[in-house]
Amino acid sequence: MAGRLLAGASARPYRGGMLEIRPNCERCDRDLAPHDAALICSFECTWCPDCVAGFPGRACPNCGGDLQLRPVRPAEALRRHPAGTTRVLSPA
Ligand SMILES: [Zn+2]
Ligand SMILES: [Zn+2]
Questions:
Q1: Cβ distance 25 to 45 under 8 Å?
Q2: Counting ligands in written order, which one lies closest to the CA of residue 42?
Q3: Which structural domain, as residue segments, surrounds residue 28?
Q4: Cα of 56 to ligand 2 centre, how many Å?
Q5: What is the pLDDT of residue 8?
C-alpha cells in the first residue's frame, strides 16, 4: 500500500501543504537534520526533544498546541521535496 501511495505521489506533483521540515530548534537553535528526532505543533513550530522536556505540559510555547514527533521524509522524497532551510528562532 505504501508503494502505491509513493507511485501516486511521483505521477502527480505534490502541491503545497507539506511540512517545511525546519532545520533548527526554535528555542536552542540546535541543528535538526530531517532524520533527527524533532517535535512539531500544528503550525510546525519545531523543537528538539531536550527543549520539549522543559515545556509545561509538553505543549508548544508559541501557540499552546499539542506537540508530535515530526515524521521523517524518506530520502527519495527529500530529493524531490528538500527540507526547509529557513531558520526560525523564538527565544524564551
Ligand atoms: Zn532545543
Ligand atoms: Zn506552535
A1: no
A2: 2
A3: 18-92
A4: 13
A5: 47
